[in-house]
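Note to self: the last two entries modelled the partners one at a time, which told us nothing about the interface. This time every component goes in together.
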Amino acid sequence: MSEWGTDMQIGHAMTLALARSFLAALADSAGTVQGSSAYEQVLLELDRIHNDDVPAIGGVELLSSADLLYAGATSAIEDLAGHGVDELHLELILAMLDDARALDRC
Amino acid sequence: MYRENGTRLRQELTTLLKQQRIQQRLGGPTRHTPVAATTPEERAAIGLLIRTYRQSILTWCLQAAHAADPYVECSIARAVPDPFRRADRDLAPLPVLQRALEQTTKSSKVALPTLDQLTTRHALGLVEHWRQAARAAVLAEHDFDPNWSGRLGQGQLTLSQAQAVVADVASICQALIVLDRRYHRAIPGWRTLPRSQQLGWAALACAFDANLAQPDYAIDHRGWRPATSHLHGAVRPGLLGVLQAENNLLVGLRTSPTALNLRRIVDSQRQISHRLADLTAGIHPTCADRWLEREHTYAELTHQLRDIGGLTGGGGAAAGEGANAIDRLNALPDEVTPGGRLVVGFTTVFRAIDQRLAEVLESAMASNRVYERIRLNRLNTEGALVHRRQTRYLPLTASTRRDLRAIIDSLRDPAGEDTIACPPSPDRAQLHTALARASSSRSSRTNLSI
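The predicted structure of the combined assembly is written out below.
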């Protein structure tokens, strides 16, 4: 499926695109620059563990509430474990996401 | 920088213009000292050395005149209604000066000074001044080096800055002609500048023409400067540590970053601009506004780069320094305020980082080193049993290029940037005064027509 990276199944790609879209929406809707930047760091980390071989953001209907966006992002990231992504990496990303949310709320 | 070498050149020529009694200075016989300290052959050899030095000054003048050429039109030429046609070049004195300089330089039949001649101190004060002037001219050639990306000329000068260069070239040419006439009578075997009369009139016309417009002496702050070096050693306390990390980030940007590292660097600049704007809002509101504007530019760039990838490049060290800068800045208490020198330091390093990132983005777009991710289609609409691989990457589309181009323009020319009015440096006025005095003296008046 990918032209120069490792092959990725459609389910994996769709889940990853969903996770990226939720994170980008969280970064865009954050109340502070620090919060937005923290969400951006989560997105960067997610891209890094996929060696920047990731699908584009969008293509899904995003929800407007920050809580729902957060729940969606958490769920999508957890789902990536079912597609062969290292679970420890995912736990670290989820921890970064929690920190980003706490930073955005304070 | 243009200022350092240009000032040195003008100061040395000003000193030389003030020096009369050339024969006496070269150890020749005078009314009071009839016994000469040097032979005519020795004075002729000194004259040859001076002409060698003069040749390098003429070469600099020629290069500077060519660098200014694409921009400078005659100040009194009428505007051409057709924007695709240049103004009437027949009226412009700069091409005449270029031709005169080319002919004079070519006909001089003197070699350029060797490295030994440029670097070895001369016992005679007069020759030493010529050596220093030639040295400044050789160093100033760096500013027009075609192999250097920030060279003056080739789209890097404004019209007013080019006018300032032309005015400088004209005054230096006039000084060389006055000195040439003076030395002709005093040094045995001296050969005058070929076609000096033509050169003198052309220089005078260029000087008048340049001063009809308003030359921009901000040119003094441009030109070649040494490359930024890494600040090693312990972390500096307070905001200096942030400045240290920013400087090291700039050094790390010599290598083009990968798309991922570029996103990290961009995000770090966004955060740093925001936090520094907060810290300076109370004492430098103008500066705080400018840095908030910078934060918005980087926020837009962050948004644009999310769907842009690219695996070539490095930039890991620069991204790491960006993270260091954020950590050091966040560790500072809220009541810290940067002093005047630190504000200037941050402004300078931000400008350099912005320029470099604009270059990186332009180069990545031009060489197709980055690609654009495209959205996935969930459903296969082809109706075939065997599915083809979906294309997930494409070269940057026209709309993405347009958006990136707008951001690059904001990085290169920030909206809140102050335009610093630069007055002419005093050495220009001193050279003009020395020229006026030399031209009005009895000896020069009889021989010089300019």
